[in-house]
Here is the input.
Amino acid sequence: MKAAMRTGTDQPAKGDRGTMMTGEQYLDSLRDGRRVALDGVLLPDVTADPGLGNAARWVATGYDRIRSGYPDGVNPIYQIPRTVEDLRARLDLVQESDVTVALTSAVLALLTAAPRLAMANPAYRERILHYFEDCRRRDVRFAEVITDAKGDRSLPPGKQDDPDLYLRVVDRDADGIVINGAKFHITMGPLVHELVVMPTKRMKPGEEQYAVACAVPVNSPGVTQIATSPHPRGSDGRSHPVSGRHTDPDSIVIFDHVHVPYERVFLDGEVEESAVVAHSLGLWERINGVADMARLGDLLVGMAQLVAEANGVDRIPHIKDKIAEMVIYATLVRAGLEASIAGATHTEDGMIAPNELYANAAKYHAAAHYPVMVRNLHDIAGGAVATAPSMADYDNPQLRPYIDKYLRTMPGVDGYYRMRLFHLIRDVTADALGGRELVSWLQSGGGLFAQRTVTRKHYDIEAAKDLARRAGGLLDGAEPASYPDGHG
Ligand SMILES: Cc1cc2nc3c(=O)[nH]c(=O)nc-3n(C[C@H](O)[C@H](O)[C@H](O)COP(=O)(O)OP(=O)(O)OC[C@H]3O[C@@H](n4cnc5c(N)ncnc54)[C@H](O)[C@@H]3O)c2cc1C
Here is the structure.
């Protein structure tokens, strides 16, 4: 863990530090009456389910690990990044932690959006700051709750045949609002404490009921989650070296007349500001994605090189070419990450935010080319990615000798090693977890379309036009630009 996270300027005053949860306290905190269904069954205790339980225990391990490095009791995930070093330390922490650390972006996005929301209603900023402090004291974790059911995609919220297809305010009283709707694909929804709800897109005049951002405890009356999880079912977890240990569940979160007190409401009808929170979140979401994909790129390269060596093809030119392509991919994603850190800028409140142009371009590049990198890996590895025997087969003394004999390739590469290498590649790229990853990297952070749009918005297209005009001598009186002809 990087020491820089401890040097921030935002440590709360002594006596106001709250308490960092232990892993065991975190697991206990999930037994709070939340309504979560998995595979058709409402779970009395999410930690007792084999798949969700493994995921929860992984998060618990992270609580203990972070706690042991920060004896003063303040969780570094709550440190507001003010400098480039803070930002880098945060992204390092994201890369080495479970996904709930990255999901703290939900509150960072609220903080980033606070100055703009205050222009609509100064109370929103106060409520966000108060909410942030309260969560820091309780050391809780968040889900980012944005993507609506959306119904017919060609119609706006108010024109859907069921008005709840976008989450909306259906009632209010002196204490708060009442919301109805469903949010889809909510990562870690079943295993966090707070649902940070925000509009999925900019709302227009007439759509005020849909312009709502708020925070809802997971166990609130009226909240039900239908979860999915890519953990292995009915087969030996040992044959799934990653997903057999833990996976990230997602869920559809249904809000059925949920009452939200005003102190937890951060946007309530101001359509002009409706896109501000999601936009801020998009940035944090994408930079976290780039950080993860930089690491994933290296993992893909590592698996490709190992399997090429194990198969005896690592010196063959077309295999070397494919691995070189993967190396370039991993390096460019990391370069995008570095550029978005180096080009970070400050918000009005002094918080530092990654550079939007580089973060979005890098996320787009990483997501758009990920399937090609997986194709390269499968091409190099061969069909045993799909058909390698399981660990249970290997346990059987009648089968083991055959596996030892026919999966080995050369001295130093025995059948057991090669079988396990194929298990890893299958698990991460070709099975339930691998399938989720393929869809997830494409769609997360709003999908390729969102990243293309934001990249285009921040790119200096006028400068590019000017360069083209000057290179062609199209500007009267202006010095012609030199043509970029530095190539040999
Ligand atoms: C594994 C996973 C985890 C996720 N985690 C979260 C999370 O934690 N929180 C969260 O809020 N969301 C999460 N998402 C949701 C993700 O942001 C969405 O999947 C993404 O924004 C696309 O929305 P959609 O799935 O509803 O697809 P759709 O909106 O149906 O989009 C499908 C395609 O149709 C296009 N399209 C749709 N409507 C229009 C239109 N009107 N005009 C032009 N093109 C259109 C889209 O550009 C896209 O190409 C997650 C998704 C996945 C797969």
The domain at 277-462 is CATH 1.20.140.10 (Butyryl-CoA Dehydrogenase, subunit A; domain 3). Confidence is low (pLDDT under 50) at residues 1-15. The pocket of flavin-adenine dinucleotide is lined by residues 144-147, 150, 153, 183, 185-187, 250, 436, 439-440, 443-444, 446-447, 449 (CB under 6 Å). The chain has two domains: 3-274, 277-462.
